[in-house]
Amino acid sequence: MHASGTEVINLEGGIDYTPTFISTDKRSPAGSTTSIGYWQIGADAQYGYTHGPIYQIEFLDVAEPVGASVAFIAIWGVDNQGSPAIYPISYFYDAAGSVSIPRKIDILLKKFEFWDSNLDDITSAVDASLTYVVGYKRRTFPLSL
After folding, report:
1. pLDDT of the chain along its 145 residues, tens only?
2. Which among 48, 19, 109, 45 is positioned nearest to 73, based on CA atoms?
């Protein structure tokens, strides 16, 4: 049951999927601490319907689009303050380097980006219709994040 999710969503590179507390307390000024509110999954908007964080991502197909030479995929967990984990694009292909194979990564996801060989972010140049990345979510939020 550890690897079972209740919602699967499509993910896009460069979006911040950090769980964010949204205060609904009308009695206290904005920015003050309160326990009245809810968690949304995403810094800017709620992604998906369930309120549990993205705990696993799966790269189904990371076909290299024309005009974007992806060499690495950088992945941040929710507690990464600095450097991400950097996966070479070859990790997502078979031994011959010709067929993209699905890879699952267990992590409480903050965000991921596509990088070129100079370690520059080229996420905006990657055609999202050619790259299939899904995230798995649960219905509940963990007791400690």
Report:
1. 456 668 888 998 899 998 877 777 777 776 677 777 777 788 888 888 888 889 999 998 877 654 468 889 999 999 888 899 999 988 888 887 777 788 999 999 999 999 988 999 988 887 777 778 999 988 776 665 5
2. 109
For 97-124, give the DSSP string: S-SB--EEEE--EEEEEEE-TTS-B-GG
**Under 8 Å between Cβ of 110 and 77:** yes
Dihedral of the CA atoms 42, 44, 48, 51 (nearest 10)?
50
pTM: 0.82
